[in-house]
Amino acid sequence: MSALLSLSNIWVEYGDKIVIENVDLDIEEGAFVSIVGPSGAGKSSLLRIILGQEIPTRGTILLDGQRLGGECGPDRGVVFQRYSVFPHISALRNTMFGLECEQAPLSARLFGTAHKAAKAMAMEMLDAVGLADSMHLYPAQMSGGMQQRLAIAQALIKRPRILLLDEPFGALDPGIRADMHALITRLWNDYALTIIMVTHDIREAFKLGTRVLALDKRRHDPDAPHRFGATAVYDLALRNRKDRAAGEELVAASLTPKIDANPNTKESIGHG
Ligand SMILES: Nc1ncnc2c1ncn2[C@@H]1O[C@H](COP(=O)(O)OP(=O)(O)OP(=O)(O)O)[C@@H](O)[C@H]1O
């Protein structure tokens, strides 16, 4: 089977700072790929490249065999850790907004049957994320978990094939996180999604992923910290519980220790 997404020899450089070097990655349709790595390893940069927000300095990305340029397309949806929803409009309008912009780029307003169809789709998405009863609420009236559910509804309304998640549950309490894990797993199945998720939480990565990619530097130059970039130091397929347990232990023990070893800080890699 050919890959849905194929990255070959990807490099990301900002000036003379090399962030990512030589990443090769083939992602099959339906995979749930978790990306972990120390802070600054380039996880979000890699996600932005797949989204089409940035172009790699070297290398190619193919989506269905077609070369990706620097453009975001409806085939890729994204959810960030926070701030994805618009505070001044209701949950319903937040969810409809993507369709309104697509169909009426100048006014972002739809009328008649187009409005009715967009509203029906938005209500279906809100129902899918468990917010059917909250469609008239504004983000400020919603909890953090509800806002992330809304951000997911927003991302899914255009029916992307690939859902990119950048620390989507990082700001949520542990109990809410567990609910969100169940939600994202259900949506992944129901909507036949391919998911690529960046997380600092190794346990979360191994719990949800069918595959875990760990980015880290293989080489360090103490005199020139930016001389070498991170690359894929582990790429683990997870077929069963045993793979998950062994992989989690291996990755947690091997990634570059960060300056601050406190597992409660965002700087460190550890179990959430
Ligand atoms: N537009 C930019 N210009 C210059 N440097 C950048 C830019 N974007 C990212 N960087 C740098 O690239 C490196 C990787 O950043 P990135 O956010 O991709 O890492 P990350 O692994 O997601 O980190 P974190 O886990 O802390 O979110 C960082 O050192 C960052 O400062």
Task: Summarize the helices and strands and which ones pair or pack.
Layout: E1 5-14, E2 17-27, E3 32-36, H1 43-51, E4 58-63, E5 66-67, E6 76-79, H2 91-103, H3 112-128, H4 144-156, E7 162-166, H5 174-190, E8 194-198, H6 202-208, E9 211-217, E10 230-237, H7 241-254
Helix pairs in contact: 2-3, 2-4, 3-4, 6-7
Bound molecules: adenosine-5'-triphosphate (ATP).
Tag the structure with descriptive keywords.
272 residues; alpha/beta; Rossmann fold; six-stranded mixed sheet; 7 helices; disordered C terminus; binds adenosine-5'-triphosphate; ATP hydrolysis activity; AAA+_ATPase; transport
Structure in words:
This protein is α/β, with parallel strands linked by helices and 272 residues long. The protein has helices at residues 43-51, 91-103, 112-128, 144-156, 174-190, 202-208, 241-254; strands spanning 5-14, 17-27, 32-36, 58-63, 66-67, 76-79, 162-166, 194-198, 211-217, 230-237. α2 packs parallel to α4 and α6 (202-208) packs antiparallel against α7. The model is unreliable at 258-272 (pLDDT under 50). The structure holds adenosine-5'-triphosphate. Adenosine-5'-triphosphate (ATP) binds next to α1.
